[in-house]
Amino acid sequence: EAKSAGGDNACFFDPAMLNIIAARAEMEADLRNGLRQHEFRLFYQPQVNSTGKWLGAEALLRWQHPQKGMVSPAEFIPLAEETGLIVPIGKWVLHQACAQLALWQADPAYASMTMSVNVSAKQFRQDDFVDTVLEAVTQHHVQPGSLKLELTESLLLDNIEQTITRMHILRSYGICFSLDDFGTGYSSLTYLKRLPLEQLKIDQSFVRDILVSPSDAAIVRTIVGLGKSLGLSVIAEGVEQESQRSFLQTLDCHAYQGYLFGKPSATLSLPQRGNSNAELHA
Ligand code: C2E
Ligand code: MG
Ligand code: MG
Ligand code: MG
């Protein structure tokens, strides 16, 4: 008996476990501090149409850590969600993205640019989420219709009735919604029909092998068709090669995002007229 009790304790005091707990606690303190010290940055990645014209950009969060350098969201968003820190961080993202969008839109050539912002479940479920979003667009004087909130299927399905109500309220103010990583979750067509979406965003996993995998090509074709019949725009993410882009175009997908058009960057210099279009048409 003593042995089995000892076994349990040994498991609880497993030094590897303690290391993990300590590392998490340290990162949480780091995250809090990072927020206070303004260490978060927004990068922007362009979204283009078939002629290479800019439609908008997606805001992508980075953490400029004093020791670790630029930390990618995959490394800190899960912990930020668990600790609730994603709420103030997400609010900062919304404000920063709207402020940047207002700057772009001040140039008449880019007046119709949109800004896509990723929203996490924890953030969306806050009682004041609607107010937070409306405050950001109002304060920075951007058209609500040029802000596109990216939600994931798992967020939507987690509490579908509240999701639908909340989306409709924001939609009534003009805010747009895009369904991110589409095709990787479990959305049913019944729900899709009830959601006030403006856009489906094809997950990059389908784009990656689109030229070699007939099933991925079929999935993309299906998503584009679904978007068309539901009256939604469809954008492909993770487009890295011109061959992928042109194949997507033959499948009737007309909006793209990916390294081919630009990596996420802090200073998104708007392209000159005709810039990079030449290679798109080559
Ligand atoms: P996501 O929203 O699906 O963003 C697309 C990810 O793909 C980004 O990674 C982007 O940098 C990357 N990407 C873009 N083009 C290409 C390409 O051509 N090839 C490849 N291999 N990758 C490409 P990133 O910036 O590391 O962001 C990862 C995820 O973190 C995002 O996935 C999103 O879920 C989350 N995220 C980013 N910013 C925020 C934010 O402000 N708030 C919240 N809640 N989540 C965020
Ligand atoms: Mg996204
Ligand atoms: Mg995505
Ligand atoms: Mg993703």
From TrEMBL:
Instruction: State the source organism's domain of life.
Output: Bacteria
**Which residues belong to any copy of the EAL domain?**
24-278
Q: Where in the cell is it found?
A: Membrane
Question: What is the name listed in the Swiss-Prot or TrEMBL entry for this protein?
Answer: EAL domain-containing protein
| Species this chain originates from | Undibacterium luofuense
Taxonomic classification, please? Bacteria, Pseudomonadati, Pseudomonadota, Betaproteobacteria, Burkholderiales
The part of the entire sequence present here spans 705 to 986 of 986
